Amino acid sequence: MRVENVTAAAESFTCNAYLALGDRNVLVDAGAMDGVADVVADHTDTLDAVVLTHQHGDHVERLDEVVEAFDPAVYAYAEHDLRTDALADGDEMKIGDEAFEAVYTPGHADDHLAFVSGTTLFSGDVVVHDDGAFDGGSFGRTDMPGQSREALIESIERLLERTPRGVEHMYAGHGGTYHGDVLDVVETALERAEKREPKYPDE
């Protein structure tokens, strides 16, 4: 499976949107970068599906652009005008060449899902490797209305339980990609979240 960050050249704030190419070409999040559909088209003529980790604006702003260009199925936990298929905790779906399990991971967002296979984790914003606050294991912010640090901690614990030891590729919603011991990154993020200190103390 080849994974391309199709928002890597963005000049304005967006999430990382990942195009997984293989037996089933799938875009994980659509991002907020104008022209993202053109970047997808640089890599493939067909897009089978878009999978949403959650529906914050930086993850879905250009969803309509992608749907108009490719007419893919759209999978999401929560309702959306463009959603074609609902996802729930424990559902399985093929992304690229691999079977992934959806793991319900609220806290940063009520509708948040992460997707894990035997080798790869698409973590959205529940866990990231580096984001300007921490390196080597960080977590989505929980200081905005509707967010919950306690729910996030429970979500990271759930993700740890469902992530196989052999996972060595992590594609997070923000920051860089990570290749190595993904469970160590998730465990570090959990330890930091459990301190319950502000992620961005100066804000």
From TrEMBL:
Naturally occurring in which organism (per UniProt): Halarchaeum salinum
Domain Metallo-beta-lactamase: start-end pairs: 14-174
GO molecular function per UniProt: hydrolase activity; metal ion binding
Protein name: MBL fold metallo-hydrolase
Cofactor(s) annotated in UniProt: Zn(2+)
Listed PANTHER family: HYDROXYACYLGLUTATHIONE HYDROLASE GLOC
Highest rank taxon of the organism: Archaea
UniProt KW keywords: Hydrolase, Metal-binding, Zinc
Key word Hydrolase present: yes
Family matches, as InterPro entries: MBL_Glyoxalase_II, Metallo-B-lactamas, RibonucZ/Hydroxyglut_hydro
